[in-house]
């Protein structure tokens, strides 16, 4: 029986830890609902399913398991800020992993036991994650304060040619947004789903915490009815049709079921995390970039366990895992929770202390489960304004299909020009040899699909992306694409040039038109006016002046 081993001491066996927390909770975890179900087709959080007894039981189980295994350690305190280091294998290789976080022994033990108890129950828990089998769609989450971003996401998605259904998981809605949800979104095959309605049974069973900004992402993916999910932050616009990501046989999704996208920064994750997660090896800082979690691609059947582990990290995020996973470095929040969950479970599986659920497997498919972290690094586009510094507008992220093609072409080219065996060289840990001093052979294809640390051994590969297909997403992390705020100068949606003329939100449109064959920004303005200039919108006070301002700017900039 595997044991939880802390360096310098031995803790209780995993099953005893779980038994203890169940005993203290009155055994409600297994008595409140049926845990013997192996169905993966229970439906999902959707108005037509909210009365489902099975689904009510699922949400009770979901929040019970999270609450019973929650981290009870004191809030994590990090005295300093992790360094903001641009991620490149060649430069990050010499950067030591920051070790700023110190925990008291009793708090470290509480983390360790909480994590071990949650992972121990995952094979059973994940075996009946609810979703509608063989469905694919786009998911986002929003609330009353930023619903206008979701409107832009839907409009741009349809202009890009996507035919996938869209689910908008909402925590609250303003009256005008309720009207949009009921009368406009259905025309775009988009559905607004109020999350709390699906949680009513769970909230009657036990008080639920008030979820904060970053915690909603994992909840939204779990709540979606789709099996295959493209999750997008509400401010992340797919300017190229994302549907081919899910085509039959399309890589890397076919072989992995999980695709993530990089941020600009090197990891500042605390080494303590790897100890708490099961005494896993600490990877080198150069192993991979931090995750940019505004775009995630999941097969919830194959990755039910890693998705639920990510939900655990986010449930315990604000005071515990968020500061541990970044040590106050760039992008602190949920971004390291998703891919890291998959890496942890794979590490535990390789050690023989975790057996993944296999109910998702189909005859002839076998275990095709991995992860693809997109290798093309992001870039920023912005706008210059008179007497003001340059303003970043959005981050560009790659088409993962094109990214995979380019990487595989580079691997093939490297294989053809070397006589060294094409296997992945031993990977570096914090105590090992820096990747820059290794003489790694060109890795094979499977290595890229199963080991996220690959780039620390492949800095010599040259990726030749097809410029016509490489960019798929504009993530508006700078200026939010929310036209309900166009009359607010702080939104920066509208700026003026030297002669007092209105400026485009995206400076220099020529390359955009060349890249995508259309004026993406002009389309967004036109389609947005088609929403906000509808007669029925005039009666909402928060939209006063929006249509007139949009027409004024559009008439000067685009006509």
TrEMBL record:
Stated family: Belongs to the MNN1/MNT family.
Protein name, as recorded: Glycosyltransferase
Disordered: region residues: 415-444
Gene Ontology biological process terms in this record: mannan biosynthetic process
Topology term for the membrane: Single-pass type II membrane protein
Pathway of action: Protein modification; protein glycosylation
Organism the protein comes from: Staphylotrichum tortipilum
Biased composition regions of type Low complexity, renumbered to the chain: 417-435
Signal sequence coordinates: none
Keywords tagged on the record: Golgi apparatus, Membrane, Signal-anchor, Transferase, Transmembrane, Transmembrane helix
């Amino acid at each position: 029986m595997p044991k939880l081993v802390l360096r310098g001491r031995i803790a209780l066996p995993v099953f005893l830890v779980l038994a203890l927390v169940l005993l203290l909770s009155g055994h409600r975890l297994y008595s409140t609902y049926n845990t013997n179900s192996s169905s993966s087709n229970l439906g999902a959080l959707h108005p037509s399913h909210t009365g489902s007894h099975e689904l009510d039981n699922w949400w009770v189980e979901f929040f019970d398991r999270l609450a019973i295994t929650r981290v009870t350690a004191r809030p994590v305190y990090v005295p300093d800020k992790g360094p903001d280091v641009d991620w490149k294998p060649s430069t990050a290789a010499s950067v030591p992993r920051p070790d700023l976080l110190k925990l008291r022994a009793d708090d470290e033990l509480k983390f360790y036991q909480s994590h071990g108890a949650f992972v121990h129950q995952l094979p059973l828990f994940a075996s009946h994650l609810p979703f509608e089998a063989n469905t694919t769609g786009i998911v986002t989450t929003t609330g009353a304060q930023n619903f206008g971003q979701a409107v832009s996401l839907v409009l741009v998605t349809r202009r890009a040619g996507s035919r996938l259904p869209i689910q908008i998981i909402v925590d609250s809605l303003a009256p005008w947004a309720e009207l949009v949800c009921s009368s406009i979104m259905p025309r775009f095959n988009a559905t607004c789903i109020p999350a709390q309605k699906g949680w009513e049974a769970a909230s009657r069973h036990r008080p639920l915490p008030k979820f904060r900004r970053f915690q909603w992402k994992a909840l939204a993916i779990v709540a979606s009815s789709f099996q295959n999910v493209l999750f997008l932050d509400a401010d992340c616009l797919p300017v190229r049709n994302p549907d081919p990501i899910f085509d039959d046989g399309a890589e890397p999704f076919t072989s992995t079921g999980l695709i993530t996208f990089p941020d600009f920064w090197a990891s500042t994750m605390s080494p303590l995390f790897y100890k708490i997660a099961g005494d896993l090896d600490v990877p080198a800082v150069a192993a991979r970039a931090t995750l940019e979690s505004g775009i995630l691609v999941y097969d919830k059947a194959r990755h039910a366990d890693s998705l639920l582990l990510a939900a655990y990290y986010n449930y315990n995020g604000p005071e515990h895992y968020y500061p541990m996973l970044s040590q106050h470095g760039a992008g602190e929040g949920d971004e390291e929770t998703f891919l890291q969950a998959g890496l942890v479970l794979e590490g535990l599986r390789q050690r023989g202390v975790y057996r993944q659920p296999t109910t998702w497997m189909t005859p002839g498919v076998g275990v095709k489960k991995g992860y693809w972290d997109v290798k093309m690094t992001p870039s920023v586009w912005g706008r210059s304004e008179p007497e003001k510094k340059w303003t970043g507008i959005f981050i560009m992220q790659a088409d993962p299909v094109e990214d995979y093609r380019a990487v595989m072409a580079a691997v093939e080219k490297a294989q053809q020009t070397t006589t060294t065996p094409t296997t992945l060289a031993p990977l570096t840990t914090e105590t090992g040899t820096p990747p820059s001093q290794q003489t790694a052979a060109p890795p094979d294809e499977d290595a890229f699909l199963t080991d996220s640390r690959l780039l620390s051994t492949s800095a010599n590969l040259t990726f030749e992306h097809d410029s016509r297909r490489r960019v798929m997403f504009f993530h508006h992390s700078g200026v939010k694409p929310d036209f309900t705020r166009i009359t607010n100068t702080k939104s920066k949606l509208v700026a003026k040039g030297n002669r007092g003329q209105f400026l485009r939100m995206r400076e220099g449109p020529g390359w955009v038109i060349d890249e995508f064959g259309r004026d993406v920004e002009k389309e967004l303005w036109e389609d947005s006016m088609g929403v906000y200039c509808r007669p029925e919108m005039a009666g909402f006070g928060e939209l006063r002046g929006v249509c007139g301002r949009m027409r004024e700017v559009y008439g000067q900039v685009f006509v």
